[in-house]
Amino acid sequence: MTMERIIIREEKAEDVRAIFGINKAAFGREDESLLIDRLRSGKEFIPELSLVAENKIGIVGHILFSEIRIKGQEDHVSLALAPMAVLPEFQNRGIGTMLVREGLRKAKALKYESVIVLGHKTFYSRFGFKPASKWGILCPFEVPDEAFMGIELTSNALENRSGVVVYPKAFLEVI
Predict the structure, then answer these.
(1) Could you say which DSSP state residue 103 is in?
(2) In this structure, are residues 81 and 115 in contact, taking their beta carbons and an 8 Å threshold?
(3) Which domains does the chain possess?
(4) Residues 6 or more apart from 9 whose CB is under 8 A from it?
(5) pLDDT value at position 2?
(6) Are residues 38 and 173 in contact, defined by beta-carbon separation less than 8 angstroms?
(7) pTM score, whole prediction
């Protein structure tokens, strides 16, 4: 079986409805879709880091990175990877992996130094994500330590960056 051709590109205005539907289908609820809609209107939204996966039938996946702060003795800018979704019928085909890799590559090209994610340890650790507690970075709400992870896009980007992650207000309004 040959791998289907997937293109990863920035979202366009005409993709908004498809992105809403992908997230709703993947998560079985609208919370993540509503989160994306609210993040788009906020200052933390980075258009270049809202990416879609497209094949011959249309958009089948989406990933979003938005700005967050790590609040410690000093505030540090980082990114939140959230959410990432692939239509259920296209899952387990490497599309999520392609979205994460391209998103991390673009984030680094845009001079972001780190990314924080709340997700599946076995999936995200493949890209180099490690428990954020390794750097003294804490989630503002209770989550399993192994599910709250960070990655340094530049060497030692999270060293001496301990503190609590401050998510955009949209995260608290929806999820």
Answers:
(1) H
(2) yes
(3) 7-168 (3.40.630.30)
(4) 51, 52, 54
(5) 43
(6) yes
(7) 0.95
> pLDDT at position 4, please?
76
* Sequence-ordered list of residues with C-beta below 8 angstroms from that of 24, at least 6 positions apart, any chain: 30, 32, 33
The tens digit of pLDDT for each residue in 99-116 reads 999 999 999 999 999 999
Rounded to a whole number of angstroms, the CA Rg of the chain reads 16
The 3-state DSSP class for residue 90 equals helix
* Per-residue pLDDT at 175: 60
Where helices occur in 5-87 by DSSP H, the ranges are 16-27, 31-40
The backbone torsions φ and ψ at residue 77, rounded to the nearest 5 degrees and listed phi first, read -80, 135
Contact between residue 117 and residue 81 where contact means Cβ atoms under 8 Å apart: yes
Query: Which residues, 6 or more positions from 70, have their beta carbon under 8 angstroms from its beta carbon?
Result: 76, 78, 116, 137, 161, 162, 163, 164, 165, 166
Give the strand pairing for 58-71 and 163-166: antiparallel
Q: What is the pLDDT of residues 36-76, one digit of tens each?
A: 999 999 999 999 999 999 999 999 999 999 999 999 999 99
Please name the residue that has the structure tokens 């019928």.
89
